[in-house]
């Protein structure tokens, strides 16, 4: 049995928050560079500014976006690991230190409806736990801004829904997001499971790398078709027109009840900030 001190988790999460806020993942950066080459006029100027922003953020340690988001973590725990201390508390302490010491904007309010008082440290984080074989912990962290999150949707389809119904739902949702969600988008789609599981799948899908292929050939084909259709909308960078409206479409699927067909769409802006560490 391998023992990991809770403080170790806190220190790693702190650094992950700071790194994610200032550094675009390599695949996202490369995708924006490819977008710049495919655009003309105003769209090309906008993507150039996106690249300049990424360069300045990394060099000068400015956040990529002023909205440093809700902190979302997917934590895979090996069955041969023992964390000495409270793991959830350790993660939230890491978020607190990352946002405070990294001078990142704190956006979480304790009461969602009435008082809406800021917690002043961006906690609590949203944490999804899963368990695997082995003696390692894998932590994937996303900083999810509200502009794109607010355009995310979920629909409980009847099992009689056609593939066209699903495609139309995705396309209509993307068109509705428009400039408000800061395109070009990265789009995670959850299909199956139940109400809450479907939404989680759509969020987890955002962790995939641009250009990666779905292992299931049917869903891989659907991802490619949706990406083509979304780019035909000409929403373009920042919603001002262009050839590229989405950098990537990723689907995660799960078994579901015979009487239902849940579909969730989680939209991310072009500044898709995420990072993964393995202990």
List its salient traits.
279 residues, 2 domains, four-stranded mixed beta sheet, 40% helix
Helix content: 25-40%
The number of helices is 8
Tell me the distance between the termini: 14 Å
How many domains would you count in the coordinates? 2
Alpha-beta classification:
alpha/beta
| H-E order | EHHHEEHEEHEHEHHEEE
Q: Judging from the principal axes of the Cα atoms, what is the shape? A: globular
As a percent range, the share of strand residues is 25-35%
Radius of gyration: 19 Å
* Order of adjacent strands in the largest pleated sheet: 4-2-5-10
Overall number of strands: 10
Pick out the low-confidence regions.
none
Largest sheet: 4 strands, mixed
Mean pLDDT: 98
Task: Describe the structure in your own words.
With 279 residues, this protein is an alpha/beta fold. The protein folds into two domains: 2-22 and 64-144, Dihydrodipicolinate Reductase, domain 2 (2-Layer Sandwich); 146-272. 40% of the residues lie in helices and 25% in strands. It contains eight helices and ten strands. The chain has a four-stranded mixed beta sheet with strand order 4-2-5-10. Helix 1 packs parallel to helix 4 (87-101) and helix 2 runs antiparallel to helix 3 (41-60). The longest helix has 20 residues, at 41-60. The protein is globular and about 50 Å long. 38% of the residues are buried.
């Amino acid at each position: 049995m391998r023992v990991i001190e809770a403080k170790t988790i806190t220190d790693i999460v702190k650094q992950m928050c700071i790194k994610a806020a200032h550094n675009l993942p390599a695949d996202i950066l490369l995708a924006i560079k490819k977008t710049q080459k495919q655009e003309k006029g105003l769209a090309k100027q906008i993507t150039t500014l996106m690249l300049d922003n990424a360069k300045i953020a990394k060099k000068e340690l400015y956040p990529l976006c002023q909205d440093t988001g809700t902190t979302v973590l997917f934590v895979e725990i090996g069955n041969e690991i023992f964390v000495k201390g409270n793991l959830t508390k350790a993660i939230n302490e890491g978020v607190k230190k990352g946002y405070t010491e990294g001078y990142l904007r704190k956006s979480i309010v304790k009461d969602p409806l009435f008082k809406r008082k800021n917690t002043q440290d961006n906690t609590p984080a949203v944490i999804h736990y899963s368990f695997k074989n082995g003696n390692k912990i894998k932590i994937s962290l996303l900083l999810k801004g509200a502009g794109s999150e607010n355009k995310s949707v979920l629909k409980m389809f009847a099992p009689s829904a056609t593939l066209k119904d699903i495609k139309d739902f995705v396309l209509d949702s993307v068109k509705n997001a428009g400039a408000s969600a800061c395109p070009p988008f990265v789009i995670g789609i959850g299909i199956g499971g139940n109400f809450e599981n479907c939404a989680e799948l759509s969020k987890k899908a955002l962790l995939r790398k641009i250009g990666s292929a779905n292992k299931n050939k049917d869903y891989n084909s659907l991802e490619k078709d949706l990406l083509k259709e979304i780019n035909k909308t000409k929403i373009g960078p920042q919603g001002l027109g262009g050839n590229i409206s989405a950098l990537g479409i990723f689907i995660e699927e799960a078994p579901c009840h015979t009487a239902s067909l849940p579909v969730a769409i989680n939209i991310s802006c072009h500044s898709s900030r995420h990072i993964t560490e393995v202990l």
